[in-house]
User: Which sequence fits this backbone?
C-alpha cells in the first residue's frame, strides 16, 4: 500500500514571519513568552453566529511542524537568513500551548476563538497557516449551516468539488460543509478521508452517451439498485419524467426507484408538475431532488413558491462562499513577557478605527446560558483568572454603550476555549465527525431564533467582564499618555 504523506506545511507561512523570527533569535528573545489570539471582526454572510471548524487541520499541521532538510536548504538558498537563525530552525519544535473553540461550537465576532501561548518566534511562525485553515473552514461551515436552516430537515448533498478553488478547498470545504449540517458529499476522497457519507446521481453525459433517456435509464437501472434519474437533458415534462416513470414501471421491484433530479428550468413549476406525474403513475414515494446554482436564498424562495422538492444538491455557492469569499479572521499579540519581571504584560493594537482596537491579555470566553432551558444569553469574555461559575450572578454590559446591560442570576457558564496542545503535546481528543456535526446542530438549536434567523438577525451579545473592560481602558489610556508624552518631548527638542 502506498504510504500516506504527512502534511508538509512548515513553509506555509508568510516570509515576514520568518523575518520577524530572525530578529527575535538574533536579539536573544527566542524564549520570550507571548500570547496571540485569533478572532474575526464581522459575522460572515451577516449571519447571527458562525460555526467553528478547521481544528483538525490545525492539529495535523502543528503535529508535523518541522523544518525538513529540503526546507532548510531552500531557506539557505534565499541568502536572507543568518546561520544562527538557520540553526534555530533546524532544531525547531513547537512547544506552545493552544486553547481553542472546538469544532461545531458557535463562535462570534470580537471574541478569541483560538489562542496560542508560546515563545515569540513559535507563535509568529504559525500565524499564516492557522488563519488560512480556520478562516476557510469557519466560512464554509457557516454557509452550510445557513443552507441547512433553509432546507429545514430535508437532505442536502454537497456537490461543489468541481467548482471549488482547487483541491484542498474541495476536500476540506466538504468536511466543513458536513460539520455545518450537510448530509453527504459527492466527493469520494472526502468520504474516505473523513468518513462522510457519499452520495450521487448521474450526469447529462450518461443520457447523451446512450442518445435517449429510456435506454440510458434502463442501462443504469440494470446496473444499480438505487436509481435517481436526471430528467432535464432534452425536455423535462415531455421526455425526461415520462421515461423515468417508464423505466421504473418496467423494472418494478428489481430497482429502488429513489426518484428524479431536476437541474435546470423553473424548478417551482417543474417540481409541481413532476410531483403530479409521479403520483399519478403510482410513485408517491419517489423523491424530487433539485440542483443548479442553489443557495439558502434560492431554497427559501423555492419553498415559498411551494415547490415540491424533497432534497437538494448544492455546489458552487457553498464551496466558494460565493457571497463572502473570506472570513477576515486575524491573529493578534495580546500579551508578552516583560524581560525584567518575566511576567506577562498586556499588549494591544490601537487604531483610529474603534473596531480594530484589540482587547489585551490572556482571556477566557464563557458561554452564558439560562439554567432553566439552556438557551443563550451571550458570551462573557474574562481575564484568564476569572471564573463566573463561582459568582452568584454575571453582570453583562455592552463594551461601547455601557448603559445597555443586564444581570443574570440563574445561569450556566461554560468555557469556550479548551486546551488542545499543552507545552507542545496534544491533549485534546477530537470527537468523530458525526459527533462534531451533531454538536453543531445542537449548538444552533440552543440559540434564540432572534440570533439564528437567516435575515437581519439580532446581534448576539459578546461582552467583557468589568475587570477585563477596565484593564483595556487603562491600557488604552496608558498608551495614549505615552504617545502624548513622546510628542511633547519631540516638540521641545
Ligand atoms: N422557480 C424559481 N425561482 C427562482 N429561481 C429559480 C427557479 N427555478 C430555477 N431557478 C434558478 O434560476 C437559475 C437559472 O436557472 P436556469 O436553468 O434557467 O439557467 P441555467 O443555470 O443557465 O441553466 P443550465 O444549467 O441549463 O445552463 C438557477 O440558479 C436556478 O436554480
Ligand atoms: O450548480 P451547483 O450548485 O454548483 O451544483 C453542481 C452542479 O454541477 C453539475 O452541473 P455541471 O457541472 O454538469 O454543469 P451545468 O449543469 O451548469 O451544465 C450539477 O448538475 C449541478 O448543476
Ligand atoms: O451526483 C450528482 O448528481 C452530482 C455530483 C456532482 C455535481 N453535480 C451533481
Assistant:
Amino acid at each position: 500500500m502506498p504510504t500516506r504523506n504527512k502534511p508538509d506545511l512548515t513553509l506555509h507561512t508568510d516570509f515576514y514571519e520568518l523575518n520577524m523570527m530572525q530578529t527575535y533569535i538574533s536579539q536573544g528573545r527566542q524564549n520570550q513568552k507571548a500570547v496571540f489570539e485569533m478572532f474575526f471582526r464581522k459575522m460572515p454572510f451577516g449571519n447571527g453566529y458562525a460555526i467553528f471548524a478547521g481544528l483538525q487541520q490545525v492539529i495535523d499541521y502543528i503535529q508535523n511542524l518541522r523544518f525538513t532538510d529540503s526546507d532548510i536548504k531552500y531557506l539557505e538558498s534565499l541568502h536572507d537568513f543568518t546561520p544562527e537563525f538557520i540553526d534555530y530552525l533546524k532544531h525547531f519544535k513547537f512547544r506552545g500551548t493552544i486553547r481553542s473553540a472546538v469544532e461545531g461550537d458557535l463562535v462570534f465576532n470580537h471574541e478569541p476563538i483560538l489562542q496560542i501561548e508560546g515563545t515569540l518566534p513559535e507563535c509568529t511562525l504559525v500565524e499564516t497557516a492557522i488563519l488560512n485553515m480556520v478562516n476557510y473552514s469557519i466560512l464554509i461551515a457557516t454557509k452550510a449551516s445557513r443552507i441547512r436552516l433553509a432546507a429545514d430537515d430535508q437532505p442536502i448533498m454537497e456537490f461543489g468539488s468541481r467548482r471549488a478553488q482547487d483541491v484542498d478547498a474541495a476536500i476540506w470545504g466538504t468536511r466543513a460543509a458536513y460539520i455545518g449540517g450537510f448530509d453527504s458529499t459527492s466527493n469520494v476522497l472526502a468520504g474516505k478521508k473523513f468518513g462522510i457519507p457519499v452520495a450521487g446521481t448521474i450526469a447529462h453525459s450518461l443520457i447523451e452517451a446512450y442518445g435517449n433517456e429510456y435506454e440510458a435509464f434502463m442501462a443504469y437501472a440494470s446496473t444499480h439498485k438505487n436509481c435517481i434519474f436526471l430528467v432535464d437533458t432534452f425536455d423535462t415534462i415531455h421526455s425526461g419524467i415520462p421515461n423515468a416513470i417508464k423505466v421504473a414501471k418496467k423494472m418494478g421491484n428489481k430497482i429502488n426507484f429513489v426518484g428524479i433530479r431536476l437541474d435546470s428550468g423553473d424548478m417551482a413549476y417543474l417540481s409541481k408538475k413532476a410531483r403530479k406525474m409521479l403520483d399519478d403513475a403510482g410513485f408517491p414515494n419517489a423523491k424530487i431532488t433539485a440542483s443548479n446554482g442553489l443557495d439558502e436564498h434560492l431554497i427559501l424562495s423555492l419553498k415559498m413558491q411551494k415547490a415540491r422538492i424533497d432534497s437538494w444538491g448544492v455546489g458552487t455557492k457553498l464551496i466558494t462562499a460565493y457571497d463572502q469569499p473570506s472570513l477576515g479572521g486575524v491573529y493578534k499579540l495580546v500579551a508578552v513577557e516583560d524581560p525584567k519581571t518575566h511576567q506577562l504584560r498586556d499588549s494591544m493594537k490601537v487604531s483610529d478605527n474603534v473596531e480594530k482596537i484589540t482587547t489585551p491579555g490572556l482571556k477566557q470566553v464563557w458561554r452564558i446560558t439560562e439554567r432553566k432551558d439552556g438557551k443563550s444569553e451571550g458570551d462573557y469574555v474574562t481575564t484568564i483568572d476569572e471564573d463566573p461559575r463561582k459568582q452568584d450572578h454575571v453582570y453583562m454590559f455592552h463594551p461601547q454603550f455601557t448603559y445597555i446591560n443586564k444581570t443574570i442570576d440563574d445561569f450556566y457558564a461554560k468555557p469556550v476555549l479548551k486546551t488542545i496542545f499543552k507545552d507542545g503535546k496534544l491533549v485534546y481528543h477530537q470527537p468523530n465527525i458525526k459527533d462534531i456535526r451533531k454538536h453543531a446542530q445542537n449548538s444552533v438549536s440552543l440559540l434564540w431564533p432572534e440570533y439564528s434567523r437567516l435575515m437581519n438577525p439580532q446581534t448576539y451579545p459578546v461582552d467583557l467582564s468589568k475587570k477585563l473592560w477596565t484593564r483595556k481602558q487603562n491600557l488604552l489610556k496608558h498608551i495614549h499618555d505615552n504617545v502624548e508624552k513622546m510628542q511633547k518631548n519631540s516638540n521641545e527638542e
User: Anything to note?
Assistant: The longest helix spans residues 466-492.
